[in-house]
């Protein structure tokens, strides 16, 4: 099985030696998405806006592969501050519907560009 790189200008470009997403077989592995606005490269203002933007970036990557949020089976949410969990959870809940994907949420010491939240997903066709 060969892997296929998924890339779109509708989400921020990779800022290092990695791909926005890689698809192999029926699985798509998307790199973590910050709340970066693709047109400006700037972070959205505040944790709620960054969460929504990160998930919109995820949606754009999935769309490029012909998938949607309903195909997501696992997410990992990285938070700069676990005190923001309830705010992030509220925004996150507006993007996904039942059956919800499996999820992990962890606080990390620091995120790239001093982001407040980063979200990565695994999707299946």
From TrEMBL:
One function term, GO molecular function aspect: deaminase activity
Highest taxon in the source lineage: Bacteria
PROSITE patterns reported in the protein's UniProt record: UPF0076
Pfam families assigned: Ribonuc_L-PSP
Coiled-coil ranges (or none): none
Cellular component, GO annotation: cytosol
Family annotation (InterPro entries): RidA, RidA_CS, RutC-like_sf, YjgF/YER057c/UK114
Gene3D superfamilies in the record: RutC-like (3.30.1330.40)
Signal peptide: none
Family: Belongs to the RutC family.
Name of the protein in question: RidA family protein
């Amino acid at each position: 099985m060969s892997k296929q790189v998924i890339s779109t200008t509708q989400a921020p470009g990779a800022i290092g030696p990695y791909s926005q997403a890689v698809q192999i077989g029926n699985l798509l592995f998307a790199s973590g998405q910050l709340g970066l606005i693709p047109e400006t490269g700037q972070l959205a203002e505040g944790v709620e806006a960054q969460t929504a933007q990160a998930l919109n970036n995820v949606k754009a990557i999935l769309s490029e592969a012909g998938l949607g949020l309903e195909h997501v089976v696992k997410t990992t949410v990285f938070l700069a501050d676990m005190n923001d969990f309830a705010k992030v959870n509220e925004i996150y809940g507006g993007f996904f519907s039942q059956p919800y994907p499996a999820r992990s949420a962890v606080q990390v010491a620091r995120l790239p560009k001093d982001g407040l939240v980063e979200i990565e997903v695994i999707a299946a066709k």
